[in-house]
């Protein structure tokens, strides 16, 4: 409450659904209101940052709290909307805890779509997409993304591949069979310019069945890749593959966009 407007730094960052523009009022639900008031102990007048995946990032001041609600008044735009890489992650559901980790880490690593797919040896036969989405939202808020990954409806892998867009490279992370080292394959595709649409497919803890790998490889956009000589757990494979893609052809490279997080002092960012 005491900060002068020009020195006000947002106390937290929230994803909201509502449109964002100067003067817009934004209402927060019970959970968010509780978080701001009782966990962060914010007060009327305190400033937070908000984003909705469409209108960029804005500063908003807490307008008032009520029983189970909080309202914000949107003031100034902090960042214009910018889309991240066009990178999907298809993954076979794994146990709770590990799948939460996948949603969180994939979001931090810039994935634009999370898509659970059931394969022959997938163990859990259901997936809680609401929980995955909640994990993704929290990770988007924390990592200063301007978007939250889309959440695709979970389905059988064959069904997902049946309507596969031809222009989207599908890197199949295969623990068996003929593959190219991931770095070699990604570097070749991403050479020189902005990378085209891409996706990674990671199998279940039980691995892919050979017949399944054969089927997937029939698709013309598939590039089977290897992640080295060790078997990685599915969650490790997700992080390793995405980090590799980002470093070789994604937004960790200089493709004209920002390669460092925003709002850090020059001293901190000039490493
Ligand atoms: N149980 C299987 C391994 C499954 S690992 C076995 O013992 O053979 C889970 C998933 O992670 C795999 O389906 C694959 O998509 C990915 N993965 C793990 N290690 C990999 C590697 N060395 N190369 C490529 N993909 C790998």
- Share of helix among residues? 25-40%
Number of strands: 13
Strand content: 15-25%
- The helix count comes to 8
SS class: alpha/beta
Rg calculated over all Cα atoms: 21 Å
- Note poorly predicted spans: 1-6
Hetero groups? S-adenosyl-L-homocysteine
CA-based shape: globular
Describe the structure.
With 271 residues, the protein is α/β, with parallel strands linked by helices. The protein has helices spanning 30-39, 98-108, 129-143, 157-162, 182-190, 210-216, 234-248, 266-269, and strands at residues 13-15, 25-28, 47-51, 57-66, 69-79, 87-91, 113-118, 150-151, 155-156, 169-173, 180-181, 198-202, 222-226. Strand 3 (47-51) and strand 4 (57-66) form a beta hairpin. Mean pLDDT is 93; it is low at 1-6. Residues 173-175, 202-203, 205-208, 226-228, 230-232, 234, 237 line the site of S-adenosyl-L-homocysteine (SAH).
Q: Which terms summarize this structure?
A:
five-stranded mixed β-sheet, 28% helix, eight-stranded parallel β-sheet, binds S-adenosyl-L-homocysteine, disordered N terminus, 8 helices, 271 residues, alpha/beta
Summarize the structure.
With 271 residues, this protein is an alpha/beta fold. α2 packs parallel to α3, α2 runs parallel beside α7 and α5 runs parallel beside α7. The structure holds S-adenosyl-L-homocysteine.
